[in-house]
Structures are given as C-alpha cells and as structure tokens.
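G., the chain you wanted modeled:
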Amino acid sequence: MTKLANPKRIAYRCGYKYQLAEDYVTRTRIRPIADAGTRFIRLTQSGELTVRADYAWDGPSGPTADTASAMRASLEHDAKYQLMRLGLIAGSWKATADKEYRDTLKEDGALGIRARLHYWALDLFGREATRPSAEPRVFYAP
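Predicted structure as tokens:
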C-alpha cells in the first residue's frame, strides 16, 4: 500500500458523469508514431484503442442530450482528445477524431442532422479541448 503524504487529504477532479464498467476496445484511423497511453487509455501504432474499466468521462459535450446513440462516440472521442491534451499523440489527429465521432454517432443510430451538427461544433470549437490547459484540474480537500 502506498503511504500518503497527508492521509487526511484527498485529491480529486470534477466534471465527469460516467465511468466505464468494462474494458472497451475499438479500431481507429489514428496512427501514433509510437504506442501511447495512460493508466486508462492505450492507443497502438496500428490503431487499436483500448479504454480500461473505471475510465471516467463527461459524455457528449455542449447543449445536447446524453442518449445511448452518443455514449460510445463520446467515450472514444474523449479518450482521443485526452491523449492529445497530454501530448501523447499529435494535435493534428483532431480532424480524424472528430470525423470518427460523427461516424460512430451515425453507426449507433443518431440522426444524420445530429451527427452533422455535433461534427460542425467540434470543428469550430473543439481545438481548445485538445490543449493541455483543458485537462481537468486536480483539487484537494480539506
């Protein structure tokens, strides 16, 4: 067991609504120059994306409903953007991540107009979410 510097203090992040119950594996067109990952996300050079159980994410962003047809797309997209924020994959993969989000929405039954509107919003406003400054801040209590 790891000894904490201050056992009466916790460190936490805000902004998450969902937590993955099982590992999830998919293929992506994103091909990093080397395998990349965190404790919860792994992306191989061949494009295999694994998101591990207990990964937390906020679902679809913006003024939209968190429907079943948007959950898988939002999970994959959040993991890809997080790898960009952490500098583990290049920010130049943003367009690919956004297109795959749109495609996954449609694949999972979202209306075409919804998929196009989400894609449009990501194209216009998503760049900031790929920057290191967008990574959720750590808070401490008490």
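The first strand starts at residue 10 and ends at 12.

Shout if anything looks off.
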